[in-house]
Amino acid sequence: MGMSTETEPAESQHEAAAVDKSSMRVRSMFTSIAGKYDLLNHLLSLNVDRLWRRFTTRTVPPEPGVPVLDCCTGTADLALAYDRASQGRSPVIGTDFCHEMLRLGNGKVKKAGASDRIVLVEGDTQRLPLPSDTFGIVTVAFGLRNVSDTVRGIDEMIRVARPGGKVAILEFSRPRGPLLGRLYLAFFRHVLPKVGQAIAPNQHDAYHYLPSSVLQFPDGQAMLDLLTSRGLNATEHYPLTFGIATLYVGTKPLRGAAG
Questions:
Q1: What is the model's pTM?
Q2: pLDDT per residue as tens digits for the range 208-235
Q3: E strands of the chain, at which residues?
Q4: Is 96 annotated as ligand-binding?
Q5: Is 124 annotated as a binding residue?
């Protein structure tokens, strides 16, 4: 099922085609907005992004003593959520290729008294500097669509998950239906860039990039099919807040198991 109007798909495809997701551009963009990133996320989602992360930790709960990896961790919100969910009993590693975001994330980790449990590492999700078959849960929240090569990012997440481990992807998605679909597109294309620009002046490009990157990213069944094609089993998805965001979950096969 797609959007309800006949003109929207063509507009969406044109907008998506214009998105430059080169690593250099994305790193530079997030460095420039790092100081306002948390404020904008919480404001633009009316703080519902906190509930989405909590839902993720409850739907894919950590096991005591089993490490968790949060890719594209940004300022470490999901890494901190997993530390809280495990009551500090599971080590958490967060990776991101934006140094400034990690600097802010380390400040939050220290403030939470979790420096002995959460380690933030500078690294690209396309080339994770971590060993294979290690983590019980590998997550990413609102970051996979910013990875230059989505498939390569997913493959790396699967590589570092241990056999039987979970891969969990929390990402913006597109609500279906005539009214909500149109309202969503109008908000993302016209309202969100203006709000972002008001809070973070001179960062016009960043808040036009967001709607474009969401519109070009696979969601719903397309994402489930992609995860299955990369080798994950038992894939499921959970639309959140009328489909504005979706949690996708898959399981890495046990060794010797059929794909």
A1: 0.85
A2: 666 677 777 889 999 999 999 999 999 9
A3: 68-71, 92-96, 118-122, 135-141, 161-172, 233-240, 245-251
A4: yes
A5: yes
